[in-house]
Automatic annotation (TrEMBL):
Its main location: periplasm. This is Nitrate ABC transporter substrate-binding protein. It comes from Nocardia vulneris. Belongs to the bacterial solute-binding protein SsuA/TauA family. It holds the Pfam family NMT1. It is found in: Periplasm.
Amino acid sequence: MRYRKHVTVVVLAVAALLLATGCRDSRHIPMVNGRPEITIMVGGLEKVIYLPAMLTKQLGYFESNDIDVKLLGEQSGANAETALLTGDVQAVVGFYDHTIDLQAKDQCISSVVQFSDVPGEVELVSTADADEIKSTADLRGKNLGVTSLGSSTDFLTQALTGQQGMSTADYTRVKVGAGQTFIAGMNHNGIDAGMTTDPTVAQMVNSGEARILVDMRTEAGTRAALGGLYPATSLYMSCATIDAHPEIVRKLAAAFVQTLQWIKAHTPEEIAAQMPSQYASAGKDLYVQSIRDSIGMFNGDGVMKPEGAQNVLNILGQYSKNVRPVRDRIDLSKTYTTRFVEEALRAPKQ
């Protein structure tokens, strides 16, 4: 009897702890001084592919749309996805393909602003291995860097190698993150090649440490590599949060659409001048170059192209272990909405 009583006390204590520290509800959006406060996790704040997140804050568009936004950095999109599911954040700026991957796991996540139609990713090869690795067919047996397993760089790596008849058994995927950890991995023989973005691409190519093997920063390069568009950077949220707070989502969408339009109307130098100075830690000229090399990826209106969404499903349906078994039941209409950006585009100019 005493043993049972002890077990009961322990179970109740554990249950209380789980209630206190367990998953939050991302549908709950706190109000601070009468304004909604949104926490957005970004899969790498300093990456040019995610530049609209910080640029929107720097331009004051969150504030002018009557919302407060807190941006958190996270080097892996897979980890950002987890933070959304646990309710630690209300939104993520990350790759659209996570919405499809999560639907395969019976989670409803939707892109509400589509920043780009291409990944903005580059497969770099170490200069030391460049004579041996001249095409994706030469990646067999190599150590290939990805931000993390289950990340978008992982999906894309599988797509590039899969077109050469390889599976993940034919090479080793190495988690190297981004930025300095990626650079260290390549320079210390941790990886032979790997997928990353600007400004890391500009830094490594300019220094002679790496060469470009596959360039998916442009529509032409993406179509050549993946057979079509591959919508990537987006603002995605849980369907429950979108349904519960459409007015807040509308304000978020309006802020980001304003930023995408601003990008199209300004030079790389003008864009770089708006960003935090530490983002140019490797040099102002290099940072401007990295923006110039990647900025064409942003679509200027935030609208998803259905062709692109379908191609993402086609690729994940072949190479994602989660999506492949259920690809025929994936409902793309639940993975994105153009409702809010279309309203923003119709709104009078401020």
